[in-house]
Amino acid sequence: MPAPTDEARAKVNLTLRVIGRRVDGYHDLESVVAFCDCADRLTLDPGTELNLVTTGPRAGDCGEASDNLVLKAARLLGERVDGLEAGEFMLDKVLPVAAGIGGGSADAAAALRLLARANKLELDDPRLIEVARLTGADVPVCLSSRACVMTGVGETLLPLALPKMPCVLVNPCVAVATSEVFKALGLRHGQLLVGATDVLLYDPSWPEAGASIDAWIRILAGIGNDLEKPATRIQPVIGEVLAALGSAEGVMLARMSGSGATCFAIFNDDADAQRAAQAIRREHPQWWVHAGTLS
Fold this sequence. Notes:
The chain is 32% helix and 27% strand. The protein is α+β, with helices and mostly antiparallel strands. The chain folds into two domains: 5-159, 2-Layer Sandwich (Ribosomal Protein S5, domain 2); 165-294, GHMP kinase, C-terminal domain (Alpha-Beta Plaits), CATH 3.30.70.890. The strands form two sheets. Strands 1, 2, 3, 4, 5, 6 and 7 form a seven-stranded mixed β-sheet that branches. It has a four-stranded antiparallel β-sheet with strand order 9-10-8-11, with helices on both faces. β2 (17-21) and β3 form a beta hairpin. The longest helix has 16 residues, at 103-118.
């Protein structure tokens, strides 16, 4: 019988507003999150010893296994579930790291789903939810792996009925540390971002299930990503990526995801997305490019 496997889908921040920085140092966010059809794959081979083996084209970028969020999540869950059945995780790493698409968080969330299955835990088990929050800010949203509005420090999730959106993701293969981007944003403890009151007062009426991509783009285009400017100051190549995506035929929206450096574009149809991806690969063969679907 094959070992159980789960997909760790890339998280994409369609919008990201920074409301402000709390007195405890954490930043309050508001983000519309979708997930892409590109993913790492995680397998759990049951056993007595907790371990992680990493393979795949991005395995060399993962650093020390002992620091991996997969093991962190498993250890935290083991502290809360007596006799937790774990074993050896095998991670096929294809997503770029430190890229603004939650690769490590998605891997940790996949680990929690596999452990929940192995130990007959429900995904809404309070211990599982607590571990997701303690592992990382993006792990709770990756645990559900469905489109939503994420607020606070990632703990509050409001599901959304997004249509399938043809997309292209591009990463220029430079790492961007989230902590450095927030540092460049320059908010003091307890400080609201200028204009954040507008965000607090603006409660968009999200389109209902079955709404068109056009209906979603009309709302998403007016919100933005507050981390795009500071991230571009740290890595100017992000501006080049956005220019390449924004000039493609059929593009409806181009923006940076998370704290970068991955950027995405939403297209009118799959054919436009595929043509754009092919053109960018020809012009920038050193960049990571994926054409697929957001939902």
